[in-house]
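FORM 12-B: Structure-to-Sequence Request
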């Protein structure tokens, strides 16, 4: 997918970003599959066809297929409480994926999100030992998340270090601090009203976590697809230099996005700690792989510049369905890790293989 220069309509106001995050202009023809692999045919002049054959539509079909397979695989799946429990398999990771999508669209990445959860959870446990009440515990968890995200953002935008190197380093740093504080111990005894954040239900079988995720999904959808800030995020991902010359404050936006991933990681830390009822330094280990898989499976280009929140939400649901289905079948957890890693490689490779195949035909 070609990247626009400084005279691109997307940066000068001649184009616009659609609800799916694609850049559309008056003379733009869909002659190639975008980096996120979302448009399947070579050219779609009919808007209805475009919607039907979009990447999100394919994800809906996949989700329905997995849902049907799970219902046949286990008699316990089609149960209101089972379906409610399913949401706990993905909501905490999906919350982070919403913010991670914006970071990756700009061409950056954050691999430290799981370690931010570990450090935030550890410091919440430490605050508990000093008699902190529920509002204080929530403030500590969210505050630590924001501070960790701001630290990542400063290293990336202030010192101009590559985000993949920075976040690999802070991934070890944050979790290492958690291990230093806790060692092989754990913090327990969280108050009941705090536990409600991770275990409570707003209405019958609808969990608070699911409601919170739905609210944030709407917020991030509007932010990315219907604001000037969202258009600038896409512009940075397509060509950061051109965006800079067009007046976009690239470093400031990237710093804000890293703070957002820290914020969502802090919220996830509160929910996960409340759900488990304890804090260990190994908490959330491996979350970063599933978060990135949700983002890429949702159609966000790993190279930046393309993607949508709708796709990320659908991908999170698919991962949750697969995880829950394997759990009902008593499949070992390592199988899920193998599946997630394989899925990540396949989703990244498919658009590249498609372009190679198309080039050989022309």
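FORM 12-B RESPONSE
SEQUENCE OUT:
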């Amino acid at each position: 997918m070609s990247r626009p220069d400084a005279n691109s309509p997307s940066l000068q106001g001649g184009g616009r970003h659609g609800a799916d995050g694609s850049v559309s202009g008056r003379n733009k023809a869909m002659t190639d599959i975008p980096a996120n692999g979302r448009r399947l045919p070579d050219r779609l002049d009919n808007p209805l066809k475009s919607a039907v054959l979009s990447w999100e539509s394919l994800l809906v079909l996949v989700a329905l297929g997995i849902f049907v397979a799970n219902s046949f695989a286990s008699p316990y799946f089609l149960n209101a409480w089972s379906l409610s429990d399913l949401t706990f398999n993905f909501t905490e990771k999906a919350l982070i994926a919403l913010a991670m999508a914006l970071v990756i669209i700009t061409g950056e990445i954050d691999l430290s999100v799981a370690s931010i959860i570990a450090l935030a959870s550890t410091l919440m446990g430490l605050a508990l030992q000093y008699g902190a009440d529920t509002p204080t515990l929530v403030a500590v968890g969210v505050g630590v998340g924001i501070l960790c995200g701001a630290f990542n953002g400063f290293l990336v935008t202030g010192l101009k270090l590559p985000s993949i190197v920075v976040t690999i380093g802070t991934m070890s740093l944050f979790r290492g601090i958690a291990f230093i504080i806790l060692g092989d111990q754990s913090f327990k005894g969280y108050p009941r009203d705090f536990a409600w954040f991770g275990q409570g239900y707003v209405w019958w079988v609808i969990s608070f976590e699911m409601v919170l995720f739905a609210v944030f999904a709407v917020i991030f959808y509007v932010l990315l697809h219907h604001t000037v800030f969202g258009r600038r995020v896409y512009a940075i991902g397509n060509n950061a230099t051109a965006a800079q010359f067009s007046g976009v404050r690239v470093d400031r936006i990237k710093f804000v996005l890293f703070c957002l991933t820290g914020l969502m990681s802090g919220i996830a830390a509160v929910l996960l700690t409340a759900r488990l009822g304890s804090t260990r330094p190994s908490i959330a280990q491996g979350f970063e792989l599933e978060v990135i898989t949700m983002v890429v499976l949702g159609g966000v280009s790993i190279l930046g510049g393309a993607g949508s929140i709708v796709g990320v939400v659908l991908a999170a649901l698919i991962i949750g369905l697969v995880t829950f289905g394997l759990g009902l079948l008593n499949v070992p957890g390592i199988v899920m890790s193998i599946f997630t890693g394989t899925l990540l490689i396949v989703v990244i490779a498919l658009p590249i293989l498609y372009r190679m195949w198309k080039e050989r035909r022309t």
